[in-house]
Please model this.
Amino acid sequence: MVKLYDAKEIAQWFINRAAMDAEMFFGEYMTNLKLQKLLYFAQGFSFAINNRPLFKEELQAWQHGPVVPSIYCIYKVCKAEPIEDVNPVEIDEETSVLLELVYKHFGIYSASKLRNISHEQMPYKKHFKENVPNIKIPNADIREEFLKNRESLIREFNDEHTELLNFAETCYLNSVPKMKDKILEEENDLVEVDWKNEL
Model:
């Protein structure tokens, strides 16, 4: 059975993945706004492919789209600036493939584009109310929205499973420690990093 994650673990995966793009492929680091939307799409893809949530925290309908409040609070200090907090995180293989699929579909878009996409989807449109905070988006509505594409997502997940997994293992898993070392060197931080205890 696929693990039910904390949203912070999934968020860290996306932060690391964007950092890899920035370092290796001239992409962009993650921002808080984009991270929130990717968490929403990841939760939806998990319902479509695995028929269960990916992480336990709830999503809420905020002005700029779906948000996981606890993750927003962690990174709100960054505002619209890039999040460069690269740290290793342990994600099982099946979830890595799912997250790579999410990133393939949505990682190419800007935060504002992802916000616009989420605004057009039923879970957000149904629950957002102007100037009313903390409105929960029920998992049942996220599930209903993404089940519309269940067959095509499962087919893509299965057809590209090996390719996505290989990419995750060779690029993502191998590059995170190197990126962390590079950041530490640039900051002249000579503190020894205990990778196992830094999750």
User: Anything to note?
Assistant: The two ends are 22 Å apart (CA to CA).
